Amino acid sequence: xxxxHAPIDTREPVFVGGQPxxxxxxxxxxxxxxxxxxxxxxxxxxxxxxxYLGWACYPVAEVVQIETAQQDKEHSNGSN
Length: 80
Fold this sequence. Notes:
Largest sheet: 4 strands, antiparallel
Shape: globular
Distance between the termini: 64 Å
Radius of gyration: 15 Å
Structural class: alpha+beta
Number of strands: 4
């Protein structure tokens, strides 16, 4: 008998090595970046890319840090 995996909710973090990670679809939605940009960032060590059941995923803490930095940039550009 084959075990069936529950469908993965891409908005929920998955745990890799005990650390929460978001799957690529959620990271692309949050950061407004495409998969190529994320791949380049991973190559340049701007973000850590890991795999969960063959899916690319990125640490929640790093994503939030980048997201916050982007929002800070937008706010500082817009307010004056």
